[in-house]
Structure formats: C-alpha cells, structure tokens
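INFO batch 0412 | record 1 of 1 | parsing
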Amino acid sequence: MFKVVVAAVSLTIVFTAFAQADGAAGNACAAKLTPDGQAIYAATVAAKPTTQNQRDTLEKETKSLAMGNKIARASARDNARAAEACIKAALQ
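INFO prediction complete | emitting tokens
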C-alpha cells in the first residue's frame, strides 16, 4: 500500500510539473519532503490554489488526507508546514 501511495504521489508531482511552468521550484522543493509531505503537496497543488486561498486549501487537503488515513495524523501539521513552503514556491 505504501508503495502505491508513493508511486501515485510521484506521478502527480511529475504531471504537475508539466501543468505549471512556474511550478518547477515547488516541485524541486517537494522532492525533498517526506512521503506524507509529498502527498500533502500533491493534493494541494492538484486543487489549484491561488496565492489568496493557498493556506485554506492546504489545511483542507491536509485534513482530508489525515482523516482518510492517507498520512500520519501525528505528523500532519509538521508535514503541512514543510509542504507550505513548496506550495508558495510553486505559486510564484
């Protein structure tokens, strides 16, 4: 199951790289995240946040992943904070 999640996240990040020309910095940053952080990043970027709603989108996606047991609840906040920096880079 873990391998499937990692593969799905990796593919999402790759496809996101093609979808956003200015997302290269965000994708490079996301590559350094933990698997849970990458899942948060991928889900948030897939939701197409704007600079105005990125924080709300990040919170919504993180909560959804945690409640769905896709990521560890205990470290969700720390991983979301790390992913937030990458999301900001992707939106610039």
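INFO post-check: The radius of gyration is 12 Å.
INFO record closed
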